[in-house]
Protein 1
Amino acid sequence: MKPFQLISLGLLTIAGLTACQGEESTPEPRQASERAVQIVPHQVQYVTESTRVEAVGTARARSTAAIYPETAGEVVSINFSAGDKVGKNQILLQLEARSERLAVKQAEVSLREAERLIERYDTVSTPGVIAGNEMDRAQAAYDNAQVQLEIAQENLGDRTVRAPFSGYVGLTDIDPGARITTDTEITRLDDREVLFVDFPVPEQTFGRIEAGDTLEVEPFSNPDVSYEAEILTLDSSIDAGTRAYTVRAAIDNSEDRLRPGMSFRIGFELPGQDYPAVPEASIVWGGDGAFLWAIENGRAERVSITIISRDEGMVLVKADIAEGSWIIEEGVQKMRPGIPVETPERTDAVARSDTQASTTGGGPASPALP
């Protein structure tokens, strides 16, 4: 029995040795492979960044004035009613002016007398009869009479209050027979065919609003109606306290539906630069800030970003990303630089290719990554 066992062991040893020698003679090289991570890609599109401006403005008339008399006196007549439209130089109020009219007549008499004296001197033909200084005094008297007449006429004109421009007059508390002074406000006059609306705008929009731009404004009295306003001018400086500047817009009010003092809601978009728009879920935060995973040649590459704005799940970013390129939207938690990636569609295609290869004997085919 012992010799048989030795022979059996010997055969097993030889067979094992032969097998080991066979493995050494035909080695199978091992190829290092990295397993691709499944991700959901997103193709980058550029979107124009916009700034939303919301403000409240107050309207004022194109021209407005509080009407006061030039002199004190008794009111003889009021020639307007509240709400009337009056023309330029139309008489609004008349003060008693009997003494002023008499002063004008007296100045006219003095002027005619000085004029007749000069005419008599001029008719004297004999040289030397009228001394030169007499002629000078006569001319001075004439000039003085002219000035006195102009003063008297000016004083008489001050007894009549006229509209300085065309517009609509407001209420008045003055009645005929009342005595008023230069501190008594007669009424207010507004030229409201065009209304000016002043409103504040943040400093960061400076340079993006220009005269001639148009926008929509809504009166708080009727939010269902909007009016087109044109930018007229911008303030010359920025307020250091509010970090804003004032913009003035004009509204056509030729139909007289609006009034000075009304408040308006103002809202408009200011277009800015173009930035890549990426899904919010694709943004990753690290110790050095926010970044994305971009797909380059089928592998993940880290790209630093600066967030510009957010809107409904999309984020505008400042980054070195070309329009039309691909980034990783889902699967960012498993990423590291250089790792190969594939989409679920590519995995399904590989599985179908493997099935076809096992049936036909061909090798698998892999579609290109985005």
Protein 2
Amino acid sequence: MGDERPFASVVSLTYNRRENLRALLSALRLQTYPRDRFEVIVVNNCSTDGTAEMVRNEFSEAKLIDVEDNLGTYSYRYGIERAQGEFILMIDDDGLPARRTWIEDVVSRFDQNPRLGVVACTILMHDTGEVAQDSPQMLAQGSTDEGYPCPAYNGTGVGLRACAIKAADSFYPKHMFHSWVELHLCTQLYDHGWETRLFRSIEVYHCRASGSVPPAQSYYGLRNYLWYVWELYPWPLVITETVHFLGSRIKASISGRIPLGLLTRSIGHAFAGMREPLRRRRPVRPEAIRALHTMRGMSS
């Protein structure tokens, strides 16, 4: 019976990707999960390409939230705060469920594990079908059914337990705009005892061109990683991780993988704006950081 299934919220953040969003909303109409047991929320990040009009005219079942400025991933908070579901499935406007059972598959994993805070999905490139470079990392301990421990999800497609994220000290902070916000949230969830697991068979397509710059090597990726460390790492791990990060990125710049100008600009802005992450400091347990390092294949 459809009424017996948990209620879920599908939240999508969009900015000037009208056609991508149209494809996503059309795909959500075909999901096998009972239609009266999930809602669709679209957060419009001040698009100028007619996105809002398209949603109103063609997808009246979707709840549209218009944001006055492009606030990056922070705007996801507006959708999360309005969501009524026990589980919140977030999918970017350029994401696309690989199967019609996506919502059903995510919800069923939550039903099986009451300590599961995050259902991370495998991210595939839509143009090639290959696993994306930034698909979630995982620790090879687990199974297809119970999932594999992973340090963070990819926001292209993910399931979140509403009570877990709403109880987090901080999520999707405005000053970060985007990049590393997923790890920022998962670090807090892990510290609070929630599990973050990757389910390799639950797949979401990322509809961007293969070969794009990896987020970790972008301006926001370089800047925000330091802000993430400065806010959540305990002393003295703040120092050791900062030194390790700077050293590895300098080596990457010398080898030509990161342009020197981009590196100096992003790192310079990180230090110039360090007051905000330091003001917000909520250090987690050292054991949590070490466990996350293991999942990320890093030495502690």
